[in-house]
Amino acid sequence: MPEKEKPEKKLEELGKSVLRQIEEKKNPDITLPVRVLSNIFFDEKLGLVKLGDKVSHRTYLNVAHTRKFMQTLMVAAECRKIINQGVTTSIRDLYYALKRTIPGTNENTVEDQSESDPIIEDLEAALDTLRERLHLQADRKGYVAGPLTLTDAGDTIDCTKMGSSGWAIPSNVEDEIIKFKKCTADFVLVIEKDAVWQRLNQDKFWKKHNCLILTGKGQPARGCRRLINRLHNELKLPVYVLTDADAWGYYIYSVIKQGSINLSFLSDRLGTPGAKFVGLTTRDVEKFDIPKNVTIKLNQGDIKRANEMMKYIWFKPNEWQDELRHMLEVGHKLELEALSSKGIKFITEKYLPKKIKERDFLP
What we know:
2 domains; 363 residues; 6-stranded mixed beta sheet
């Protein structure tokens, strides 16, 4: 990593900038990207949800800003300290490290974690870095199995020899921690549900089809999405996503593919525009003769969400409009586990091999 891009250098420059302003008797000012919906757009060329170029100014001598200005510098200083120490900490630990009573007052620097967490995201956006590179850990969630050998903090991991549980994806998967050593896989299959991932792992789907199988156990955590991004961009592996046939599963796919509104400032590192949707779809009920009695009737929340998604620009491709309309027309959804009605191994021996061979994907 070039010296100027190192997070510790960016933190130092932030501190020096504030110090210069004080020495010049100016009102200390920190420039931050505006992280509101009106400053978020979908970049159709890149296929990513992106943050616009609007900025705001957090100034010390503005009473409305003073508290957050202080908290911003406190978080930055604490991050610089833990980087110097060569350790990492959780965002919960960071909150407690920052919380103290200001001398001569009854006021705390932070009252609860809901104050410190947004400041971390402010710094990520302002410094164009990841919290993991600031040595802050996010939630750890997800597993991988398949023909991939890597080093994790110096330890060699062979993802074909991780037993029934697979390799647990850490929160920080940046290349200074996770280094890819060897990969012979042809593609990555990202699976919404842990139970379905376990079925595929037990059936050695990854071995029979020379792929990596990865689960985020629902909505993938940042580390999981970052790993998918790296596997695609660095190892040039196609990414196929398997979720429930409902609006919530389709949204999980969309977050993997083009990033999320909440983390739009990180979409280039967390989104994978080249990802394809392999299933499940409501049209698969007829294609694979799935019993109608395993479908689930749409509730009002499902209907509302599907109608909302039809308006999202990233769901505008005809194939997605057709699938969402079809879901509303038939009035049902279904879970991946519904494929077990055709046999426990139907998903590994029939459904996925046919879908992947025929490239029966949604964009």
